[in-house]
Amino acid sequence: MLELLLCSLVTILPDYLYRHYRQGKRFGKEITLYSVWYELRWGITGCLMLTIALITMIFYYHPSTSSATLYFRTVPILPEVAGRVAEVNVEYSAPVKKGDVLFRLDSAKQQAALETAKRKVAEVDASLISARADVVKAEAQIGEAKAAWQQARDELDSKGELQRRNPGIVPQRDIEKLQVIVDQRQAGVDSASAAREASALRISTLLPAEKASAEAAIAEAQVDLDKTSIRAGVDGRVEQFLLRTGDVVNQMMRPAGVLIPAGAGRRSLQAGFGQIEAQVIRPGMLAEATCISKPWVIIPLVVTGVQDYIAAGQFRSGEQLIDPQNLRQPGTILAFLEPLYKGGLEGVTPGSTCIVNAYTSNHDAIADPKTDAIKGFALHVVDATGLVHALLLRIQALLLPVKTLVLSGH
User: Fold this and answer.
1) Residue 234 — very low, low, confident or very high, per pLDDT cuts 50/70/90?
2) Topology of 62-72+265-314+328-410 in CATH?
3) Which among 54, 91, 48, 45 has a CA at the least distance from the CA of 389?
4) Cα four-point dihedral sign 364, 367, 372, 373
């Protein structure tokens, strides 16, 4: 309507002035309700054509969309292990800090496993003390075996010396028996030494390895026990936390609630513009927005990024071929906008629906000496028409509460 009024000032109004002052025609006389089309046909036709051209130019070079909101990512509250809830520490909606315990699961099984692992360490420590006693015992046995061997060896040497001096004085059978006894005592010494080495090896290698394994089992059991305490991974706010003691939760089908990170949805606004405006939307463009959750306020923005892909064209490979005819909606160009000034989005509730206008600026092209006068004038006209769209946005911001509260039918 605003474009029509503007265009009528340079089309219908001059046509009427010409008819009235040049041809002497007056409303109610020569110009009536039935003859207005015939009398003002040139002005009306020109007005319609100019209005269509103006609207097309405004909406192309200064795109607008009502598909805009402040998206925010939520973190599902999921336990790493399935179990029954034993304790809940937060309410339905509450702020939380990173590391706060949200709820606990029944941990009887994990505590039993931890206690078993601790008992295993104590058992290994006891075995280590016993092994040290075995080493002392083996050393004593070595000393005893060496003494017995030395005694048998001395007796063999004495009998051998007598036999050497007086052959036949000592029966050969006795010497052979003594040699067997010496060999037997030597075997006892070797056995005691082997027992000592086995005990020493058990102390230095086997038992430390068993203890390390038991300590690893304790650490594993402690990790499993810690998993029964579900903590907040980030600072934020818990919303719609309906979990109660006795509920069963698992990581696949029964999430406990939703954690919204602090500051989520308060840094940028995402808007979807029509595909025809893909050549116009560029990073650095100035924009304005008005949101339902903060009425009667115009928020200055700047386009910081434009997604190079349209979400409607994505597909996941499967057993069926893709048919483009099934694409019901064309999809939009996703643009990311941030407030031009610090705190520009304060007071806007994340997820709020917004109306966004983006404005094309040809200042650099106009200031370029290579731009001729006609092109410069056309670019001036394009930039100037952004004022119309800015005015329309302010009218929308003014009427938005009335449209939402009165005319929506709620």
Assistant:
1) confident
2) Elongation Factor Tu (Ef-tu); domain 3 (2.40.30)
3) 54
4) positive
